Amino acid sequence: MGGGAGMTVVDAVVIGRNEGERLGACLSSLRGRVRRLVYVDSGSTDRSVDLARGLGAEVVALDLSVPFTAARARNAGLAALGDDPPDFVQLVDGDCEVDPGWIAAALHAFALHPAAVVICGRRRERFPEASVYNMLADREWDTPVGQARACGGDALMRYGAVMAVGGYRAELIAGEEPELCERLRAAGGEVWRIDADMTLHDAALRRFPQWWRRSVRAGHAFAEGAALHGAGPDRHWVAETRRAVIWGIVLPLAIVGTGFLAPVALLAVLVYPAQVVRLARRGGWTWALFSVLGKFAEARGVAGYWLGRMRGRRRGLIEYR
Questions:
Q1: Which domain holds residue 130?
Q2: If you ran DSSP here, which 8-state letter would residue 46 be given?
C-alpha cells in the first residue's frame, strides 16, 4: 500500500491500553496491508508494548504525567507519521480487528467520492450474543450507508485533510471523532459510510454498570459537542443533549415536584412506559427499554459536564471496562 512512485500510501495508527490478545489480533490484521504501523500506548501494564514491537509496529508511549484521552493518543500517532506523510491513514482502536478487504474497499470509495476525507464501514461486535449490552453496541454501530455527518473510532482518512484542521481535539474524553468530522466538513470535506465490513470489535460489555458508565460518557460527549458546535448549521448534538435533559432531569423533577402538591400528578410517571411502548414499535422491546433507561445515564453525563465547566474543572476519563 505504498512506497513506489505514484502509488497510494496508506499507514495505520492503532491506540490502546491493556488490550492483550485483542491488540495482537488488531495489529496482525493490518500487517502487510499498510506501509507503516504505529501503535500508541496509553500506559499499559500488560505486555502490550512488547507485543506490538514483536509484530513490527512502531511504538509511541504517551507521557504518563499528562491525562490520557483517545484523541491525544490518535494525535500522537498522526504526529509520528509526519516525517514521511501518507496519503491515507487508517485509525483503529486496539480492541478491533480490521477486515481483510476493508482498505481496498475504502480506497475504491475514495475514488468514487473525490470530496471525501473520511470513509468508514460497518463495525460489528465479535460476540453480540454474549450479553444484551454487546447486542445493543452492535446495533449502535449499524448506522445508515451514504454520506454521513460523522464516523466512529475506526475509519480511513485523508492524512493531509486531518492535519490541515489540526487533528483531534486532544482534551475531549469522548466524542472526538464526530467533533473532528464537524471541522472536516466545515472545511469542505465529506464523510461517507459504505456498505462494507470494516472491523470486528470486542466491547466486552457483560454487566449493567459497564453499560451505565458508557451511557454517562455518551451524555458527557453530547453536552461538550453541543457546547463546541451546537450553534453551527448542523446543531451538533443539540437534539441528543436536549432529549437527555428532558427525559432524565426535567420530567422526573416536574413529576416529583407536582406530586407534592397533587399526588395524582405522580401518575405522569407512566409517560416512561408509554415511551417504551412507542419506541418498541420501531425497534423492539429491548432496544426501547434501554433507550429510555439510558436517558437517565446520559442526563448524568450532561449534568457532570456542565457542573465541571462551571467549576472550571475538566473531568477525567469515564472508563467502563
A1: 10-206
A2: S
Nearest to residue 167, comparing CAs of 180, 149, 157, 152?
180
In order along its 321 residues, the chain shows pLDDT tens digits of 555 556 899 999 999 999 988 999 999 999 999 999 999 999 999 999 999 999 999 999 999 888 889 999 999 999 999 999 999 999 999 999 999 999 999 999 999 999 999 999 999 999 999 999 999 999 999 999 999 999 999 999 999 999 999 999 999 999 999 999 999 999 999 999 999 999 999 989 999 999 999 999 999 999 999 999 999 999 999 999 999 999 999 999 999 999 888 888 889 999 999 999 999 999 999 999 999 999 999 999 999 999 999 999 888 877 877
Q: Determine the length of the chain.
A: 321
The H or E element that residue 119 is part of is: strand 116-125
The reply to whether 174 and 258 lie within a common domain is no
Q: Last residue of some domain: 206, 240, 274?
A: 206
Q: Amino acid identity of 224?
A: E
Q: Tell me, yes or no, whether 192 lies in a domain.
A: yes
Instruction: Name the residue with cell 478487504.
Output: 101
User: Per the structure block, which three cell numbers stand in for 209?
Assistant: 454498570
Number of domains composing the chain: 2
Enumerate the β-bridge partners of residue 39: 14, 59
